[in-house]
Amino acid sequence: xxxxxxxxxxxxxxxxxxxxxxxxxxxxxxxxxxxxxxxxxxxxxxxxxxxxxxxxxxxxxxxxxxxxxxxxxxxxxxxxxxxxxxxxxxxxxxxxxxxxxxxxxxxxxxxxxxxxxxxxxxxxxxxxxxxxxxxxxxxxxxxxxxxxxxxxxxxxxxxxxxxxxxxxxxxxxxxxxxxxxxxxxxxxxxxxxxxxxxxxxxxxxxxxxxxxxxxxxxxxxxxxxxxxxxxxxxxxxxxxxxxxxxxxxxxxxxxxxxxxxxxxxxxxxxxxxxxxxxxxxxxxxxxxxxxxxxxxx
Amino acid sequence: xxxxxxxxxxxxxxxxxxxxxxxxxxxxxxxxxxxxxxxxxxxxxxxxxxxxxxxxxxxxxxxxxxxxxxxxxxxxxxxxxxxxxxxxxxxxxxxxxxxxxxxxxxxxxxxxxxxxxxxxxxxxxxxxxxxxxxxxxxxxxxxxxxxxxxxxxxxxxxxxxxxxxxxxxxxxxxxxxxxxxxxxxxxxxxxxxxxxxxxxxxxxxxxxxxxxxxxxxxxxxxxxxxxxxxxxxxxxxxxxxxxxxxxxxxxxxxxxxxxxxxxxxxxxxxxxxxxxxxxxxxxxxxxxxxxxx
Lengths: 297, 293
What we know:
The complex is a heterodimer of chains A (297) and B (293). By secondary structure, chain A is mainly α. Chain A has helices spanning 9-43, 60-67, 69-100, 107-115, 122-133, 139-145, 162-187, 191-199, 204-215, 217-233, 236-241, 253-263, 267-295. Chain A has 2 domains: 32-64 and 262-297, no CATH class; 82-191 and 217-251, Orthogonal Bundle (MetI-like fold). In chain A, 72% of the residues lie in helices and 0% in strands. In chain A, helix 2 (60-67) packs across helix 13 (267-295). Chain B is mostly helical and 293 residues long. Chain B has one domain: MetI-like (MetI-like fold, Orthogonal Bundle), CATH 1.10.3720.10. In chain B, 69% of the residues lie in helices and 0% in strands.
């Protein structure tokens, strides 16, 4: 700025004040986020069990982790869950946004209905879905009571299908949010482009397929990033809905990390799994944040 | 939201339009169903629930499950109901939201009106912190809270939520203040206004909307948190979400589904109310957290 030597004490304070004001938040972030990340990453190379211990074991925890059947199940479930969750949320979100964009009467009522699950805790929605899907008192029982005796819907108790109930509840909770993102994108499209296309005789279908959807690219990208990071962080929902079961049928990396670290006393392996989770999210988030922050310049 | 595609005449026939309405209404039903099921079954006697129909209205209406969930149900060791945990949540949420919002406002002010070299990198570092899987900080956080005597306390949870919330609050205020005319700030500076005077007199008076967004977002997020509550709280400080989970998962005695439903709605009520009253701001916060503002 100006020559510091000529500044009075008060001016000098004014120069430093902005940085001083920012520094507590920055210090908190550096210690509690980046310091902690380094510490956990370090623990993943040690022989920590119940408590952190500092005996260096190299890559042993990672080797063990990837040979564990339990981890393999968690990662496979994650892949199934993430792919279905992201694809279905995007499909439903896009469809609802396009339909709502057709000058719908009552849009002001429908939109908040689609979006309200986002305001709920995953524990609440997990509890609700758990009992609705429970064959004993939920949907199956209700259908029986209504006279459809052969109706069967026991996915939540079925090892092969339980993961799909997690997908169902997660889609229920966040697809409205994806709808809102796409709707904002659609409403942001320049009207003249659409009018011109209509004058040229484009059908509605072509209008959306050829013009709107390609123009929604930024919304697709945001939806992908948000859904991916939500998928990897999914924890509460599984705890409330299935508790990771039946057996390990709905175990995810987040639940794996928790049980290995805090109940099985394998902190080294728990730390290794947390590090892998972080790396996965970083691989998605860092390029996204980088491009978002760069574009502003 | 400018209605850009709205004033376009979309050519749809009567059949198509009916179909569109049917699909939209079916989805509305899908989203409403769990809440309706919970509400209806929370005012039913237990026998009617186990007896059969989850979507039928009760034959006998009763508020007993609500009373039980609030003040009598067995959560943890004692039969206290969810009441004390509801207050735990309030005691945790209010300071955490206040502190993180104030810090976010100050950070946003510095990052837009007092720019310095490398500020974007620092902001990026703070922003990334919002997206990390919190499993990566659980182990050291438990240690640090223990060292400072904050393990198992509400204040410990406040610290945790402030630390992992400032990224978002800073993002909100930064995006908001970026659109605020810097000429006004510069003019005030020339007139000799100090750093805090400019913030207090010039930026803060027009920060109403973004403050609402920030408060609602933080309130919803912190109220709904489960992982930190489950990891760092003990019985004297457990938040509502953890207590609800304990109530629902407890394996002793008869499962009182109606009480569980009433408890779940009690846990959902504060954020649901905020959503009903200020949904517009909630949506704005959601969008700003994902797409840039």
